[in-house]
Design a protein that fits this description.
Number of domains: 2
CATH architecture of the largest domain: Alpha-Beta Barrel
Helix content: 25-40%
Strand order of the largest sheet: 3-4-5-6-7-8-9
Strand content: 15-25%
CATH superfamily of the largest domain: Alanine racemase
Bound molecules: pyridoxal-5'-phosphate
Distance between the termini: 29 Å
CATH class of the largest domain: Alpha Beta
Number of helices: 12
Radius of gyration: 23 Å
Number of strands: 19
CATH topology of the largest domain: TIM Barrel
């Protein structure tokens, strides 16, 4: 078989920045242990590469959303703690009983299913105001959890990225009221932004995701978090256009003067969504090359008039600093990461 040539688009992933981010979040978590949310393929970076690096850095608690995701990394976390946020459906039970991972039980139904299966250690999610997953405090007080062997009792913040939102304190107090009421050995509340809300929010274990990967939603984290992901795309063609020429689908961009374009091998199928049309930037060294016209499925056009050296085969860096790219596109930092497709060559530095 002929080996495939290298992909015309690539991610440069900074493994030491990933580890430094975990260490910073661990430090900021104070006395609490710091875990890692690695769901959705490690937020798009590649879950196995992420988990092995975080385990090397000292992370002991990993969180995924589904049992398929747990299976993907089970061999990398033997002896460590792995929790599955979405709990157990009937069709998960067999896998859940075989894998060395705990379900995070989210409802009285899931609790009953786990007891019925004699499943052993588990985590439990309490809903303290988000109204997404979890049992209510009243269900806990009425004894639904009696007989369970609970490792971590957790809840999730709705508005951690808004420091002054009143729901933060309300949710924190609601979880605090459950201290000592269940068999849980640990309590956990804070995601990345929650860590920055202060000691009261740390409990025994924190669960950052976004900030491990370079996302920052809280000013207090800005100085601690390094960028991890760099996106690069290769030039397929350079072209000159005249005043009055239009560019791309729907001819949304019309040149008012002579312009030179580079056509790059990246598009919305690679997570570079159409919201970057006319707003994203590529860089040829220090020279900013703005995206012209609509983003196509596999291509974008950028203005390289000021970068005469750029030609076929060159690599341009696409602006993907998460807060910055989020501002350009209106996409959340989460969407920017998890939307990254699988056509990239992933290069860990
Ligand atoms: C995704 C997730 C996290 C991590 O949140 P970030 O905002 O990415 O830090 C923590 N806890 C739960 C329950 C989650 O679903």
């Amino acid at each position: 078989m002929v080996e495939a040539p290298p992909a015309p688009l690539r991610l440069k992933l900074d493994g030491s920045a990933l580890q430094a981010n975990w260490r910073a979040l661990d430090r900021l978590s104070g006395k609490a242990a710091c875990g890692a949310a690695v769901k959705a393929n490690g937020y798009g970076l590649g879950v196995r590469e992420v988990v092995s690096r975080l385990a090397d850095a000292g992370c002991r608690d990993f969180f995924v959303a589904t049992w398929e995701e747990a299976k993907e990394i089970a061999d990398l976390v033997t002896g460590l703690s792995l929790s599955v946020f979405h709990g157990v459906r009937a069709e998960d039970i067999e896998t859940a009983l075989t894998l060395a991972a705990r379900p995070c039980l989210n409802s009285a139904e899931q609790v009953a299913r786990w007891k019925e299966a004699d499943g052993g250690p588990c985590d439990v999610m309490i809903d303290t105001g988000m109204n997404r997953l979890g049992l209510s405090a009243n269900e806990v007080l009425s004894g639904v959890l009696d007989g369970l062997e609970i490792d971590t009792l957790m809840s999730h913040l709705s508005c951690a990225d808004e420091e002054d939102h009143p729901l933060n304190r309300k949710q924190c107090d609601a979880l605090k009221r459950l201290v000592g009421i269940t068999s849980a050995t640990r309590l956990s509340l804070a995601n990345s932004a929650g860590i920055a809300l202060g000691t009261r929010y740390h409990f025994d274990l924190t669960r950052p995701g976004l900030s491990l990967y370079g996302g920052v939603q809280s000013q207090d984290l800005e100085d601690h978090i390094r960028n991890v992901v760099a996106v690069e795309a290769q030039v397929i063609q350079r072209r000159k256009i005249k005043p009055g020429d239009t560019v791309g689908y729907s001819a949304t961009a019309t040149a008012t003067e002579a312009v030179e374009l580079a056509i790059l091998n990246i598009g919305y199928a690679d997570g570079y969504l159409r919201s970057f049309s006319e707003s994203g930037t590529a860089y040829a060294g220090d020279i900013a090359c703005p995206v012209i016209g609509l983003v196509s499925m596999d291509l974008i056009a950028v203005d390289v008039t000021d970068a005469p050296q750029v030609g076929e085969g060159d690599w341009l860096e696409i602006e993907y600093d998460l807060p910055m790219a989020s501002g350009q596109s209106g996409l959340s930092q989460y969407e920017l990461l998890t939307g990254i497709g699988d056509r990239y060559q992933r290069i860990w530095l």
